[in-house]
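INSTRUCTION: Work out how this chain folds

Token vocabulary: learned, describes local backbone geometry

RECORD BEGINS BELOW THIS LINE
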Amino acid sequence: MAIYHDLLFLLLPYPDLSPLLLILLVGFYAGTQNTLAGGGSFITFPALLLAGLDPLAANITSTVALFPNQITSFWGGRKLAGGVREITLGKLFGLSVLGGLIGALLLLSTPVTIFSRLVPWLVLFATTIFMWGSFRKKPINAVSNIPIPLLAMIQLLIGVYGGYFGGGIGLLMLAILSIAGQKVRMATATKNVLAMAMNASAVILFTFSSHVNWSVALVLSIGGIGGGFAGNWLVHRLPEKIMRGFVVLVGVTLTVWLFLR
């Protein structure tokens, strides 16, 4: 941490404000990343670790801070979202809220020491999912034979994972919804609605948690909202593969660092 603060002192003439300014810039990038390609938590999580938060506080604070960005994504695409065969959007929404609540309760029940040991494996899993979802060949016409009860269970489990850690949930849902038969535009809008749903229940619980660093969360959130507007402007101007490639690089680097530290 001494090296980190020395670096901040060299970067800005007011070192007391330096961490918050850097976190604001991180939030701005993460909000832009989420709007363009997803994976903003891959940027905020390691930044909060470097800022001195323990892994549990970093994960919870990041979830709370990026929630307003998810609300804007949900609101912008809500009219395109829909259900899958017999499972209405309302049922998927309910499963997501329930799963997010269960995941958040599990996270708050996990001691910091245990969560710290789990983090490298969670980041490895999320990075793998992100790489697979970003660069796999998308099917032109998806025809699903997934039984409805299995599809509902999968969404509930994704919700649990989303409430607990959340890295890669968007790509997990996009893959499942596409396989289940939704077109890409509809699947994208649906996963934004469901991601907001599972995180809403988690954020409600996290609001009362002592693990939230509110000053950091506020600054990160402001940056994320600004990044959302920037992402909407850049969506037709910046190649998505560049953003996704950077997220994969961060994820791989973070995974290696977490295993070695």
Q: What stands out?
A: Residues 2-260 form one domain. DSSP finds eleven helices and no strands in the chain. The chain has a mean pLDDT of 78.
